[in-house]
Design a protein that fits this description.
Blueprint (H helix, E strand, L loop, with lengths): L1 H19 L4 H29 L1 E5 L10 E4 L1 H24 L10 H17 L3 H20 L4 H32 L4 H10 L6 H16 L8 H7 L2 H27 L5 H24 L3 H16 L2 H4 L5 H36 L10 H4 L1 H15 L5 H16 L3 H25 L13 H19 L1 H6 L5 E4 L1
Parallel strand pairs: 1-3
Antiparallel strand pairs: 1-2
Helix pairs in contact: 1-2, 1-4, 2-3, 2-4, 3-4, 3-10, 3-14, 3-19, 4-5, 4-10, 5-6, 5-10, 6-8, 6-9, 7-10, 8-10, 9-10, 9-12, 10-12, 10-14, 11-12, 11-18, 12-14, 12-18, 14-16, 14-17, 14-19, 16-18, 16-19, 17-18, 17-19
């Protein structure tokens, strides 16, 4: 059964991408909605299987590493697969009504959308470093194409800038992979991790680790390598921006976290861990400040992504040189942060797109009076902001609380100030949007009212980000499942 489920997650998106290339926008939309339902059923089925029978490794065609392609399925993987299904489906439904079907280039949204989904599933399940690279490149090329779908010169410039940064990051990562293969003779992450712990030459892994982390940090847009992100996320269509912020940048961080936790901790140094944490802390403060100062709504949300990415890199100092229980606590906190941020940021970008569509402008001051006539999208924006601020009962609160506990237990009290300061700055830029929307314009309704289905997609994702905080223990419980080998 697991074979069919995994095949559905890997090959069905590729098949849908290929077929939708032959269809127009409306036909591609109908096919994609059917595909979303299929992906939901398969993701839930695999999640149920892992929850009741445990995780497993799967080697394609029975060829074991280092010759074969190794796939890994565990509690974290199925959680990310289900998260991808929820977020991508919400963004896809929104895009079906948000994009203009009569524009000729919009028909390419669905092929790129499904290629992106296939790349994400490949990264979540990839068990070897090169296969992770292949999935990451599929994601990058699809994301660049989606940014360019805006059609304007500014969108093309942002897409080209994104492409160049992503290729530079890929080059650094691939050089690190080459060093790993030259040293250990395998690209299986599990095999590399096993050899690092016993090899006398494990320190030769350190240059490879540095190269891979630098390349992945560039793809994740960690400060100061974030310059490509605000233009790309700010100019892209709102459903595309939601996909990029919620899922695409998480894929490169996911690889960095797995490499660090499975093989990197054994060869890293304290200064490496602290440096990554410091860069994350600067990203939180600097990104939040820039979000507070932006005159355009989508740029506010884009710079908010720069800030929220910073929280993820607190994983590195909070899992190095600490007790196993503290490291596990930090890992669980980061997992909840990734999930809640993906749902909240997708909801925020979709709600921002609805507000821009309603007022006919991307300027923050153009929101004056919108609260009186279009409260639904504004409420969705605020609910997403609750999670970004880390207020209860949101998933953001549960994640930051666990990170705070890990900081205290490890004696790294300085991260507590970063967590508190980031929450306050998040509140400042969210309330700035609300302040602008509550300014009185006049008593007449001059706003365009978007399709209610656009508002429902944003609201459901925002509510899901709050639900993560309530059901956090259930989300984390599936991550401790044992492994078994499957051929």
């Amino acid at each position: 059964m697991s074979n069919w489920l995994m095949a559905g997650l890997l090959f069905t998106p590729l098949a849908l991408a290929t077929v939708s290339l032959l269809l127009g926008f409306r036909q591609g939309r109908a096919l994609s909605w059917l595909g979303m339902l299929l992906q939901l059923l398969v993701s839930v089925g695999l999640w149920w299987l892992v929850r009741h029978e445990g995780g497993f490794y799967y080697t394609l065609a029975g060829w074991d590493a280092p010759l074969g392609i190794e796939l890994r399925v565990d509690g974290l993987v199925v959680t990310f697969l289900l998260l991808t299904t929820l977020v991508a489906s919400g963004c896809g439904i929104h895009a079906g009504f948000y994009l203009e079907p009569d524009r000729p280039w919009q028909r390419y949204f669905w092929p790129l959308y499904w290629f992106l989904w296939a790349g994400l599933n490949t990264v979540w399940m990839g068990g070897d470093l090169f296969n992770l690279y292949v999935g990451l490149e599929l994601i990058t090329l699809s994301a660049v194409g989606l940014v360019a779908l805006g059609g304007q010169a500014e969108a093309l410039r942002a897409a080209l800038r994104y492409l160049l940064a992503a290729l530079l990051g890929s080059l650094a990562y691939l050089l690190g992979v080459a060093l790993v293969y030259g040293q250990f003779g395998t690209l299986s992450l599990a095999d590399v991790a096993g050899q690092v712990r016993v090899s006398e030459h494990a320190l030769l892994m350190r240059p490879a680790l540095v190269l891979m982390l630098v390349g992945l940090a560039l793809k994740t847009a960690l400060f100061p390598l974030h310059g490509w992100l605000p233009p790309a996320h700010g100019i892209a269509k709102s459903p595309v921006s939601a996909l990029l912020s919620a899922l695409v940048v998480k894929a490169s961080f996911y690889i960095a976290a797995r490499v660090w936790l499975e093989a990197g901790v054994a060869v890293a140094s304290q200064w490496m861990a602290q440096l990554l944490g410091v860069l994350g802390a600067v990203a939180i403060i600097w990104g939040s400040w820039l979000a507070l100062c932006q005159p355009r709504l989508k740029q506010v949300v884009a710079y908010s992504s720069v800030a929220q990415i910073g929280y993820l890199f607190l994983l590195f100092p909070l899992t190095f040189g600490v007790e196993a229980s503290v490291s596990l606590h930090a890992q669980q906190g980061i997992t909840l942060q990734v999930i809640s941020h993906a749902l909240a940021k997708a909801a925020m970008f979709l709600a921002a797109g609805n507000l821009i569509l309603a007022v006919g402008s991307n300027r923050v001051e153009a929101l004056a009076g919108v609260s009186h006539f279009l409260p639904f999208s504004l409420f969705s924006f605020g609910l997403a902001g609750v999670s970004l601020m880390g207020l209860p009962p949101s998933g953001g609160f549960a994640a930051k609380w666990m990170l705070l506990q890990a900081s205290m237990a490890s004696g790294q009290w300085w991260w507590i100030m970063v967590l508190a300061g980031g929450g306050l700055l998040s509140a400042a830029y969210v309330f700035r949007i609300y302040k602008a929307s509550f300014l009185e314009r006049d008593e007449q309704d001059h706003f365009y009212h978007p399709d209610r289905r656009l508002e429902v997609a944003a609201m459901l994702l925002a509510l899901a980000s709050l639900g993560v905080g309530v059901s956090g223990s259930q989300v984390l419980s599936v991550m401790a499942m044992p492994f078994e080998e499957v051929q």
